[in-house]
Design brief:
The complex is a heterodimer of chains A (about 525) and B (about 55). Helix content of chain A is about 65%, strand content about 0%. Chain A is an all-alpha fold. A two-stranded antiparallel ribbon of chain A has the order 1-2. Chain A has a two-stranded antiparallel ribbon with strand order 3-4. In chain A, a hairpin with a 6-residue loop joins strand 1 and strand 2 (about 10). Chain B is mostly helical and about 55 residues long. Chain B has helices spanning about 5-10, 25-50. Classes of the chains: A mainly alpha (about 525), B mainly alpha (about 55). Chains A and B meet through strand 2, helix 9 and helix 11 of A and helix 1 and helix 2 of B.
């Protein structure tokens, strides 16, 4: 027997399914293989759809990432790359591809992995997986086609009375329903695993977290249906325009909650990568699971913080939804923010890395991009995203920050520095273990998470500081060229906008390294079928 | 050192662990986070007070 990565999992020699303990209890009906690295059973149907969803995720990451670079270079006043028309078009494309398509394709892949591999069961329905995937691909392609043709310059929020082509809304509906079908397939997989007793005891924490993400996804997609169907019928000309205030409130039940699916999925990925890279085990199951329950119960209320300057809702409604109730969801993140690094500390101290306060942290497998991605994601999400998020979500403070660049500064640390970086870390295991292909240039893969993390941190901090100087979010020209009176910002704001451009370019470089490496590995990489993955 | 395989960790994850865990490093990181939050939160209330005077 050999040991796989620096301090990872024990790697057995090639073995067939029957040699793995507990494997015979599965309900796979033959379509299964045993992972040569982890010893986990891999349902071959699920594997196919994990691959398909992961590939599409990377395709949309490329689209959204390219748009991100163009947006960053336009907001940098010295460069100011795109025209106003193409800037707003590209910003719409960026938001939809990064916040929705890349992340949700990855999340469906995560649900199929967690539901089958960790529970030793088959995927409930191959047909549902196919229908889900087809609807999501067609929906996302329709949305991108409409945006690129200039028929949907409505930004990601598509606030009524801005109107896009009906095919844009239909694309969003198709993508949402396709996602819902995938989530139902995951929930059905949990059911058959339970029915067939394919696992012992409770489901693993990663599956529990994925289930929490799935429940939030159902609520999110129902909000999406409620708000997008009447908007679609309005765009076709069948009905009157939906009420604008009603649209904004219900849309954020879709827009904000979709980011909470990300948070749940990201935390699940933290626990998964903690186990895969250091052998860590959750410290206290009840506490960790309780934290996921808090997300399900209270995270929807946090949608209200998008409407803190909206005249359509009362002050009482704003204060309730963004104070005590929302903080119960924040408490959940704080619990995970402790239990995840604590489980790593315990695992590494057990291995003898117990020198001083941080000996374990220095001895952690930083050369393994699976570990560095997830730990950097944890730090960026907690220290930058968490602190700024709770502060900006306070009603009174929001008055000085709303619609400034501080808001994108915050969510680029949660969704990009947090979720996207964690999902990149996951890819460093999905490609060798599910695609059974090796990454080609491992040294480059090792530095990629650091390049991306530095870039996104510089960009997000600069956004926050520029926003503190009053620079608006989304705006094409902070000079307000041609305005009737003197406008614009001082040199410090310009300096910060320069750092937004520089940080964005560094982050894009990290993204490009990830994309090129991953595409190379998937299509041209060396196969590791029948043997354990190579060391990082 | 022979490590546990991921399959074993997940399979036995639900079993109670009676060992006592000490995590002093994580405690320091968490306290650092809370201190950072306190400073940032206070600075924002100060900025709000500077922008909107209450008489």
């Amino acid at each position: 027997m050999t040991t796989a990565t620096a301090n990872v999992i024990e790697v057995p020699g090639p073995k067939d399914a029957d040699e793995t303990p507990g494997f015979r209890q599965g309900n796979h009906q033959g379509a299964v293989r045993s992972c040569d690295t982890t010893g986990l059973p891999v349902c071959l149907t699920a594997q196919r759809y994990i691959k398909l969803n992961a590939v599409m995720a990377v395709v949309f990451l490329l689209v959204g990432g390219t748009a991100a670079l163009l947006v960053a270079l336009t907001r940098w006043p010295s460069v100011h790359l795109l025209s106003a028309e193409w800037y707003y078009r590209t910003l719409t494309l960026h938001g939809l591809n990064m916040l929705i398509f890349w992340i949700i394709f990855m999340e469906i892949a995560i649900l199929y992995f967690a539901g089958t591999t960790l529970l030793n069961t088959r995927l409930a329905s191959k047909a549902l997986a196919g229908v889900s995937f087809a609807m999501m691909v067609v929906g996302a392609a329709m949305v991108d086609a409409m945006v690129l043709q200039g028929k949907a310059d409505v930004m990601m929020t598509s606030y009524v009375p801005l109107q896009a082509h009906w095919a844009f809304y239909l694309g969003v509906i198709l993508f949402a329903v396709g996602t819902l079908v995938g989530v139902i397939n995951f929930l059905a997989t949990l059911y058959i695993a339970r029915r067939d007793k394919t696992y012992q005891g409770s489901v693993p924490l990663v599956v529990f977290g994925a289930t929490a993400a799935a429940i939030i996804a159902v609520l999110t997609l129902l909000h999406g249906a409620v708000v997008m169907i009447p908007t679609f019928t309005w765009a076709v000309g069948w009905t009157d325009a939906p009420d604008a205030a009603w649209y904004r409130m219900v849309w954020w039940g879709l827009g904000h909650q979709s980011q909470q699916i990300n948070v749940c999925a990201m935390v699940s990925v933290w626990y998964l990568l903690g186990t895969l890279t250091t052998g860590a085990k959750p410290l206290n199951q009840a506490v960790c699971r309780g934290a996921f329950l808090l997300y399900i119960l209270f995270i929807n209320l946090a949608s209200a913080h998008h409407l803190l300057v909206d005249p359509g809702v009362s002050a009482g409604w704003k204060i309730w939804n963004t104070s005590y109730a929302m903080y119960l969801a924040v408490a959940a993140s704080m619990i995970h923010g402790f239990t995840v690094p604590a489980s790593i500390e315990v695992a590494l101290r057990k291995k003898g890395h117990d020198k001083g306060l941080f000996g374990w942290l220095f001895a952690a497998p930083w050369k393994n991009p699976g570990f560095s991605s997830f730990f950097l994601s944890l730090v960026i999400f907690g220290f930058l995203g968490g602190i700024t998020g709770v502060t900006l979500g306070t009603q009174q403070i929001n008055i000085i920050a709303h619609n400034t660049l501080r808001i994108p500064g915050h969510f680029h640390t949660t969704v990009v520095g947090g979720t996207s970086l964690a999902f990149m870390g996951l890819a460093y295991y999905v490609v060798p273990l599910i695609f059974q292909k090796e990454y080609p240039l491992k040294a480059l893969a090792r530095v990629q998470p650091f390049v991306f993390a530095v870039g996104i941190t510089v960009m997000a901090v600069a956004m926050s500081l520029a926003g503190s100087a009053g620079v608006p979010r989304r705006h094409w020209d902070i000079e307000f060229t041609g305005a009737q009176f003197s406008a614009g910002f001082d040199s410090s704001a310009h300096l910060m906008m320069g750092f937004v451009g520089i940080g964005g370019t560094i982050a894009f470089t990290g993204l490009l390294i990830f994309l090129l490496q991953t595409v190379w590995a998937v299509f041209l990489g060396r196969s590791n079928a029948g043997k354990p993955m190579e060391q990082w | 050192m022979t490590e546990k395989r991921a399959a074993d960790v997940f399979q036995h994850e639900h079993e109670k662990d009676h060992e006592e865990h000490k995590t002093p490093g994580t405690m320091v990181l968490v306290l650092l986070l809370l201190a950072s939050f306190a400073v940032y939160y206070f600075a924002n209330w100060k900025a709000l007070a500077d922008a909107w005077h209450v008489r």
